[in-house]
Write a structure and sequence with these properties.
The complex is a heterodimer.
Chain A (H helix, E strand, L loop, with lengths): L19 H6 L4 H7 L3 H10 L12 H10 L9 E6 L8 H8 L1 H15 L3 E6 L4 H16 L15 E6 L9 H8 L23 E5 H19 L9 E8 L5 E6 L4 H8 L9 E6 L5 E3 L10 H6 L8 E6 L4 H15 L5 H19 L4 H18 L9 H11 L4
Parallel strand pairs in A: 1-2, 1-4, 2-3, 5-9
Antiparallel strand pairs in A: 5-6, 7-8, 7-9
Chain B lengths: L2 H6 L8 H11 L7 H10 L4 H10 L11 E6 L2 H7 L2 H10 L12 E6 L11 E3 L2 E3 L4 H14 L1
The chains are: A alpha/beta, B alpha+beta.
């Protein structure tokens, strides 16, 4: 039986998240104290050496992001910013909520350390408005950290200052995309920005900005405490460390499981989540959310890692695993996913606005007419490819991901 | 607390827009933003009323129309839809008599659809104002609404 291996959730359930005193008793903020004595350049190097990859979905090197932001030079860079993306809205994903509700301080610690590394003195946590419990707990945690002097001026007498503020989203999936998040944080409609420039160069209010996901920040204190070698000893060479997987759907024990990267999908579904409910057979899993991939049983023994899944035409994404039993319809699920994209398309660029609606129409036809489905699948693939090439932001570039995987794994259903 | 008192808790910078709008809306018993609210925010943040209106209309959590005292948000994510079908909406309709996008005549309840609420391991789920209700079935839904009506 495979075991959980907790890094991001190492303190979860070990203290009451609204009582900082309890957290301090189990070693809270020691890693901040240690990091603030380190040279910022060394922290960036350490994170690069640990090969920490962004846990939000894209899997980009978290260390490189820090390096670009720390080295950003411009004429009027009076301020650098650090932002935590807690706008978790990818269907099937709730890992950030678990961290926020059970260990808000590990996020604050990760942000202080990263802010010191890049020289940011102002931070924001952008959290979706529907996460009312997380917002409540995080507010208390930030206030308690301020009272203890872990946030504010001259933290641990290091001369380093950092303020963190909470900003609320208001029901837009798109605002979880980092450039759109910046627009929203500036108090505007959530319309995507054209990139480049990337946030490391021109982010919030045009200043160099580091944006990381909650889970990514939660790994940083561990890396400071144990070093890069220890971190890399878990997981696979290209995907080191752990990942929180959120397993939902037709399984016996749906929930969140943090494991080393590199376990198989079978381990997660049949071991951790107890297999398929009611003695039914496995049909499909959707990995990574709506902007994720359908896979069939031929992928069950593939290692869960960024590159190993890519070789199979699948993605790790946010770590969401939505499981479908033999009784579920691939068509219904695809229809829900495409409806979701249509609803969340912001309408700024034509390919996405029109394309998401077209895909829905085609999927309606697939559902209602038994003839010509194979042709429709090919048409959808073509449409999604146009969208991927011409849309402004990741939303319009996403429908191709599930549709291509349908073609690869479930063409026989059409 | 008056509207002005609520606003003045925040620094008058534009990046406080969403936080201010949330607080104003939450303090209204009918969970919406009035024309007066939008004007107040525009003046406070030194921006135009139309740009505030533009922001409000973009985000699905904000409303410029009065809603019920209890706003129900049913999760219609692909996962909750798969687990639930349309049962949840039917059960809610049986209890309070309204469908999606509607408000009861007594202004007690409004029913809305929401994208993934992030409680996928406890599907199907819904929120009523700030509370999350999980693993729903017809009995649970009946109890929830009975309790709300009793305690009202």
């Amino acid at each position: 039986m495979a075991l959980e291996n907790r890094i991001a959730l190492k303190n979860a359930q070990k203290y009451n998240p609204v009582k900082i005193e309890e957290y301090l008793k189990i070693g809270g903020y020691e890693n901040v104290k240690k990091a603030l004595k380190m040279d910022p350049v060394n922290i960036v190097d350490l994170v690069i050496d640990a090969k920490l990859r962004g846990r939000g979905g894209a899997g980009y090197s978290a260390g490189q992001k820090k390096r670009f932001t720390s080295e950003a030079i411009c004429d009027r860079c009076i301020q650098k910013y650090i932002i935590c993306n807690a706008d978790e809205g990818e269907p099937g994903t709730f890992k950030d909520r678990i961290i926020l509700e059970q260990d808000p301080h590990v996020l604050i610690e990760g942000m202080i350390i990263a802010a010191h590394a890049i020289g940011a003195t102002k931070g924001f946590i952008y959290i979706r408005g529907e996460y009312t419990d997380s917002i409540h707990i995080l507010r208390i945690a930030i206030n308690q950290a301020k009272e203890k002097g872990f946030l504010g001026k001259n933290i641990f007498n290091s001369g380093f200052d950092l303020d963190i503020e909470i900003k609320l989203g208001a029901g837009s999936y798109l605002c979880g995309e980092e450039l759109t998040l910046l627009e929203s944080l500036e108090g505007k409609r959530g319309y995507p920005r054209i990139k480049p420039p990337f946030p490391a160069e021109k982010g919030l209010f045009g200043m160099p900005t580091l944006i990381n996901n909650v889970e990514t920040f939660a790994h940083v204190p561990y890396i400071i405490e144990h070093g890069a070698d220890k971190y890399r000893s878990v997981g696979t060479p290209n995907s080191p460390g752990t990942k929180i997987f959120t397993i939902s759907g037709d399984v016996v024990k749906p929930g969140y499981y943090e494991t080393a990267l590199g376990l198989s999908l079978r381990d997660l579904i049949f071991d951790f989540a107890g297999g398929i409910k009611d003695g039914k057979k496995f049909k499909a899993a959707i990995l990574g959310g709506a902007a994720g991939t359908f896979v069939d049983e031929s992928v069950l023994d593939t290692q869960m890692g960024y590159d190993t899944l890519k070789e199979k035409g699948a993605v790790l994404g946010s770590g969401a695993i939505m499981v479908m039993s033999e009784e579920r319809s691939i068509f219904d699920m695809t229809h829900s996913i495409l409806k979701f994209f249509k609803h969340e398309s912001c309408g700024k660029c034509v390919p996405c606005r029109v394309g998401t609606a077209q895909l829905m129409l085609m999927m309606d036809k697939v559902k209602n007419h038994p003839n010509g489905r194979k042709q429709l699948l090919n048409d959808m693939l073509l449409e999604a490819e146009y969208m991927a090439k011409t849309s402004l932001c990741p939303l319009g570039q996403s429908p191709i991901i599930p549709i291509r995987s349908l073609k690869q794994y479930f063409e026989n259903q059409f | 607390m008056s509207r002005k008192d609520i606003i003045s808790k925040f620094e008058p910078v534009k990046d406080n827009m969403l936080n201010i709008l949330h607080e104003l809306q939450n303090s209204n018993p009918n969970n919406y933003l009035t024309t007066e609210d939008l004007k107040l925010v525009a003046d406070y943040l030194n921006t135009s009323q139309s740009s505030v209106y533009g922001v409000v209309k973009y985000y699905s959590m904000f409303s410029v129309k009065p809603k019920g005292k209890y706003v129900i948000r049913v999760c219609k994510s692909p996962l909750c839809s798969m687990i639930d079908g349309n049962n949840l909406l039917d059960h809610i309709k049986q209890n309070i008599g309204i469908g999606l996008g509607e408000t009861t005549d007594d202004q007690m309840f409004s029913l809305e659809a929401s994208e993934c609420l992030g409680h996928c391991a406890e599907a199907p789920v819904m929120m009523i104002n700030d509370g999350v209700y999980k693993d729903l079935d017809s009995d649970k839904i009946k109890n929830i609404f009975q309790n709300i009506k009793l305690n009202h």
